[in-house]
Design goal:
The chain is of the alpha+beta class. Helices cover 47% and strands 8% of the residues. It folds into 3 domains: 3-48, no CATH class; 67-183, no CATH class; 193-329, no CATH class. It has a 4-stranded antiparallel sheet with strand order 1-2-3-4. Helix 1 runs parallel beside helix 3 (32-47), helix 11 (243-254) crosses helix 14 and helix 12 (258-282) packs antiparallel against helix 13 (285-300). The two termini are 51 Å apart. Residues 344-354 have a biased composition (Basic and acidic residues).
Length: 354
């Protein structure tokens, strides 16, 4: 489509929308066909009683690119695809028309589970940006961070010897160069800089709201469950255990557990970062700040299992194990462990595990 025809099409849209200011800016355009069409459209609007401003927008030398109405690069993140799985959506306007829409699924280990690419018209892309902005009350995900996360996941998946969705390679020229290290959500820290974090006492409820109890096990929990059985062994009546006592025994069992210590600054912290983004977009800023701080603390500590709030994560992983047993027809108990799970396995949309 030529620039002239594209501008003529835009003039028709402006006339229909009664955009007199836009048309006025084209009445002296260098292209005679564009100028003639703009003046005719202005005459039609004036005859209908539409007020014509004294000065319009400056489109005198407008090209197709000048006239395009797009939202610019936009991105979204959500965790509704599957428990523990992050879905990232990125829309990048093309050089000529339309936009490339990329959708990818990442597991807590940063492996890329799926990738798909679509085409959006300019109008579709603009509406998508408007809808995302409205739903998040003006808050937005940093597009460069999402782009880097997608590329980082692709490299991590490939270098780990796992199969990479083939379709992503066709779009690497558009997505650009992969970062040298895992992208940190510094943009989120800046957005929450003036926010006071929710107290640790509210962390458990926030994690439950984020469906953390529905996550798959993110570490080999066999040794933890054994230690927890020992820690609970002196209790004659399990029904008499208070919530505080249970958390104390869980903390005792988690202390020094190497499998948990290794996983906390890895898949746990990775997924918590995305949970914090979801809370931020939902407007739960204090909870977003608290969860993001937990992820930062896990990465910074040499003994992350002792970090304030970790006990709630471990408790919810125990709940996840119990729920897994129920799905498999067994009875939940502290002495049970997910022996039939692959170590480090994360349930994804294409997973054939129950």
């Amino acid at each position: 489509m030529s620039d002239t025809q594209a501008l003529l099409d835009e003039i028709k849209k402006m006339q229909k929308a009664q955009d007199a200011a836009g048309l006025l800016g084209l009445e002296n355009h260098g292209d005679k066909k564009v100028k003639k069409a703009a003046r005719k459209a202005i005459h039609v609007l004036r005859s209908k009683g539409v007020e014509i401003p004294e000065q319009g927008r400056s489109w005198n030398q407008a090209s197709l690119q000048d006239m395009r109405q797009v939202a610019g690069p936009i991105a979204m993140l959500d965790m509704s695809a599957s428990p523990g799985v992050t879905r990232m959506t990125l829309s990048l306007p093309n050089d000529d028309q339309g936009a490339a829409l990329f959708v990818t699924l990442l597991d807590p280990n940063q492996r890329m589970l799926d990738f798909a690419a679509y085409f959006q018209t300019d109008g579709q892309q603009k509406r998508t940006g408007r809808d995302w902005k409205r739903d998040a009350d003006g808050r937005a995900v940093d597009t460069e961070w999402v782009r880097q996360r997608i590329l980082w996941a692709r490299e991590y998946t490939f270098n780990g010897g796992f199969e990479v969705p083939k379709s992503i390679d066709d779009h690497l020229p558009t997505l650009g160069q992969a970062p040298s290290e895992r992208p940190d959500p510094a943009w989120l820290d800046a957005a929450l800089a003036e926010v006071e974090a929710a107290p640790t006492s509210e962390l458990s409820d926030a994690l439950v709201a984020a469906n953390v109890h529905g996550w798959p096990l993110l570490f080999d929990a066999n040794s933890l469950f054994e230690s927890l059985n020992e820690a609970m062994g002196d209790i004659e009546d399990p029904d008499s255990v208070t919530a505080e006592q249970r958390l104390e025994r869980i903390s005792q069992a988690a202390a020094g557990n190497e499998a948990l210590r290794e996983a906390l600054p890895g898949p746990f912290a990775n997924t918590l970062d995305d949970v914090a983004v979801v809370f931020y977009l939902d407007g739960s800023l204090a909870q977003a700040k608290r969860i993001r701080q937990l992820a930062v603390d896990l990465r910074a500590s040499e003994t992350p299992e002792t970090v304030d709030g970790v006990v709630h994560l471990v408790q919810l992983q125990i709940t996840a194990a119990a729920m897994q047993q129920l799905r498999q027809g067994g009875l939940p108990g502290m002495d049970a462990s997910p022996a039939d799970e692959e170590e480090g396995h994360v349930h994804g949309p294409d997973c054939d595990h129950d």
